[in-house]
Amino acid sequence: MTIVEIWLCTGGVSMLSGKYAYSALIAISCLLTGFSAYHLKLYLSPTVVALSPADGTEEIDPSVPIAVAFSRAMAPGSVNGTTLVLEEREGRPVPARVAYDAEHRIGLVTPAAPLRPGTAYALRVGAEAGARPAGALGLALRAPATTRFTTAGAAPPGEDSGAPVLVVVGPQNPFGRYYAEILRAEGLNLFTVVEAAALTPERLASARLVLLTAAPAEPGLADRLAAWVQAGGNLVAVRPAGAWLPLFGLAEAGAPLEGGYLRPDAQAAASRGLVQDTIQVHGPISRFALEDGDAVAHLFETAERPLPHPAVTLRKVGQGQAAALAYDLATTVVRSRQGNPAWVGQERDGRPPRRANDLFYPDHLDLAKVGVPQADEHQRLLANLIVVMSEARLPLPRLWYLPDGRRAALIMAGDDHATPRGTLDAFARLAAGSPSDCRPDAWECDRATSYVTSGTPLPRAEAERYAEMGFEPAMHVDTGCKDSDPAMVSLALSEQTDRIGRARFGIAGQATHRLHCIAWNGWAETAKIQRAHGIRLNLDYYYWSGEWIGQRPGFMTGSGLPMRFADLDGRVLDIYQAATHLVNENGIDHRHGITAMLDKALGPEQFFGVFGTHYDYTDGYFDTLVSLAKARNVALISAAQMLRWLDRRDEARFEHLSWDGHTLAFRVRLAEGPEQAVAMLPLWSTSHRLSGISCGEHRVPHEVTTIKGLDYALFDVEAGSCRAVYDERTSSMPLPARLQ
Question: Can you give the pLDDT at residue 17?
Answer without folding.
Answer: 36
